[in-house]
Amino acid sequence: MKQYLELCQRIVDEGVWVDNKRTGKRCLTVINADLSYDVENGIFPLVTTRKSFWKAAVAEMIGYLRGYSSAADFRRIGTKTWDANANKNAQWLANPHRKGVDDIGEAYGVVGRGWRTPEGQRIDLLAQIVDDLSQGIDNRGEILTFYNPGVFDRACLRPCMYSHHFSLLGDTLYLNSTQRSCDVPLGLNFNMVQAYFLLAIMAQITDHKPGKVFHKIVNAHIYADQLPLMQDVQLKRTPYPSPTFIINSNIKTLHDLESWVSLDDFKVEGYQHHQPIQYPFSV
Ligand SMILES: Nc1nc(=O)c2c([nH]1)NC[C@@H]1CN(c3ccc(C(=O)N[C@@H](CCC(=O)O)C(=O)O)cc3)CN21
Ligand SMILES: O=c1ccn([C@H]2C[C@H](O)[C@@H](COP(=O)(O)O)O2)c(=O)[nH]1
């Protein structure tokens, strides 16, 4: 939580105004931030200076791991966060590759679970990584990437947290996650939870101890219409101690995650938080 607030404060103090063409808004921006999450000691990086809807964040990541391409599937598992990008962005609505209502296109898990080869085959990067790690193999390239420039025109958005690189040191699993673009008030509140969750669940299904996540963010920004709430409300609040995140221990395989797992299999204990803040969302 401290590192999150420090990044918010850094943007307020040192950020530079940058015009963003896609959203038509200005963003107060810094370049490069390195956050880390101590999964080994169970320090769950949940924002406490406003109420965080952590279940929606977990649902998003489960949707990515399942390779969802429809906002309707995301809704069914418990989050509406893809509705606007799927159905409200004029450029995407006019894109001939869009397959209709709720389609988000070839983004995130569609890429990670079905990487296109030149021969027209598909590679399931996630299944390969799970296989390797389960056998104690780290080939120094256990990378789940969602980033395929060749299909950007077939998606409503390019993936933001686009690469997850897993490493083994003995029986401990580590994760380096990289994010190209970060909406700090809204997106990062979710992305911290997702990176923590990803290491915790991958350690559990490959039978390793979780170590740390190292989360690299390149462009970290606050949209102009979010700034007053960040500066005058959220940054004025004192954080509470971190809560604990609990995963159903019956989840043992990737197949479990793909088939029967729901948000009821995850719990947060000891979550003390301030009042919610509704930040404006830019489509
Ligand atoms: N501008 C922008 N920021 C993002 O963070 C973002 C995108 N676009 N597009 C793709 C996904 C969708 N994400 C989202 C979308 C909505 C919320 C959101 O509205 N959050 C609210 C309420 C969440 C709820 O009720 O479940 C929040 O207060 O956190 C958060 C992340 C993250 N990503
Ligand atoms: O997981 C996510 C997904 C999206 N975001 C934010 C970052 C930007 O504000 C927008 C994406 O816009 P681009 O023009 O494609 O950069 O969504 C996030 O923070 N986290």
UniProtKB/TrEMBL annotation:
Keyword Zinc listed: no
Q: Which reaction does it catalyse?
A: dUMP + (6R)-5,10-methylene-5,6,7,8-tetrahydrofolate = 7,8-dihydrofolate + dTMP
**Stored Pfam families:** Thymidylat_synt (PF00303)
Q: What is its EC number?
A: 2.1.1.45
Give the annotated active site. Answer: C160
Q: In which pathway does it act?
A: Pyrimidine metabolism; dTTP biosynthesis
Q: What processes in GO biological process is this protein linked to?
A: methylation
Principal localization reads cytoplasm
The top EC class is transferase
Keywords (alphabetical) are: Cytoplasm, Methyltransferase, Nucleotide biosynthesis, Transferase
Query: Which protein family is it in?
Result: Belongs to the thymidylate synthase family. Bacterial-type ThyA subfamily.
Name of the protein this chain belongs to: Thymidylate synthase
Q: What is the lineage of its organism?
A: Bacteria, Pseudomonadati, Pseudomonadota, Gammaproteobacteria, Celerinatantimonadaceae
Which gene is transcribed and translated to give this protein?
thyA
